[in-house]
Every structure is written in C-alpha cells, then in structure tokens.
Amino acid sequence: MSLVKINVMKTLLLLFTTLILSGCATRFILPSQRFLSPEVQGGGFKSSIELYKTTAHLARLKGNNDGISGVAYDEISRTAYQFSTGLFDQFDIVWSHVGSANSLIGGKFQFIGSAKGGGDGHKLSFAYLVGGNRHESDKKDIEFRLNAQEYWGIYGYRLNPFFMPYFSFGLGQYKYRGHIKKGFYAGERPRIKSDVYTSSLGLEINYQSVFFRLESGFQLLESTKTSDKWAMRTGFGLGYSW
Q1: Residue 119: which domain range?
Q2: pLDDT over 70 at 15, yes or no
Q3: 54: which strand partners?
Q4: What is the pTM of this model?
C-alpha cells in the first residue's frame, strides 16, 4: 500500500474519531456560580428551594496525531437548581445541580452571624460540595467517569430584612477519566484535571419568604494540556423559604 493511501486512511480515521469526540461522553460541564448565601437556614429543617439562570463552560476533548491534547471550551447557558435544609442552627445540608453537570451534595457551616431571619450584621460561611457520575456512550465506544468537589467561602453583610450584599470565592476541582475503545485514539485513557476559580459579588433581596439573587464575577479555568481561560459570569435566580 502506498504512503499516500496510508496518509489518506489516517486522515479519514482522524476525521471519524473527531466526530466521535464530539459526542456527550467526551464533554463535561464546568459550572460557574453556585449562588450560595452566607446565611444558613437556622436548624429545625427550615428549608429553601431555588431556581437560577447562569452560564457555564462546556469542555470538549480535542486531539491531534499525537493523541488527546486537552480540551476546548464553549460558553453555554444553563438552568440551575438548589435545595438547602437546616440540620443544626449553624449547619445546612445543600444539594446543587447545574443542567447536564454533576449533581453535588454537601454542607454549609456558618461561623459568624445569625441565620436567615435572625438579624442584621456580618455573615461568614464555608461550604463543601462533592459528587460524580459514570457514563458510557450508546455505541459503547467511549466510557468515562467525572468526579468533582468544590470549596466555597461566602461573606455578606445584611443591611436590613430586605437587602444583603455578599461576596463569594470558590475552588472547583473536576477530574475526567475516560477510556476510548474505538477509532484513531482507541486504547487511550485521557485524564483531564480542571481547576475552576470563581469570585463573585452578589445581592440578595428578600420579601417575606421569597428572595431574589443577582451575582456577577470572574472565573479562571485551568485544565490539563490547555491554555488558561478567563471569563466573566453573571446570573440571577429566584427562591422560596419555608
């Protein structure tokens, strides 16, 4: 077989594999905001449920003749959900989900200040969330596991029962482990580690049991074999407490 034919076959196989790499098993969501409040619910299983609109990054595996060469980012719009319930006076159980991303569950502990509805002043909390999933493509050509954990510090100052500005800083650590079974990259086991740093300013507006949040800030994404990416993030949401 001539060298030209071999190169053509390699090119066609690479194109075919590129199409495979556009499938859902080779993409994962890196969320931006979590819309965490510095105030906990206040124990007694007091709870809140929240719905948000935000942006995130879709990370897609990319490759060349030498193998998988990192990820490419696409900015996308996402709907997010969150549920919190007060287990103790200063501690909440939190479940958070951004559309098509990992669902995370964890806890939030308030070190400084009173819980929601307990008064004005300084508020300071720390949250830890963790989650993961495993997936295999319909054609069984790629399988992967995505594990995630996030750390958040949230500070706010409640001016009165209606307004509370706050600041949050978060570190998200995402680990993608894949196994490509078919195509040009068959046998490869890509390992992508993504660190996501997020800092946001927010405002919570309360009226009785209903609250509205607006957040805006910056995000830095650092992924294996990929150039760092800066992005600005803005989102908003509505919630209800009981």
Answers
A1: 3-241
A2: no
A3: 78
A4: 0.86
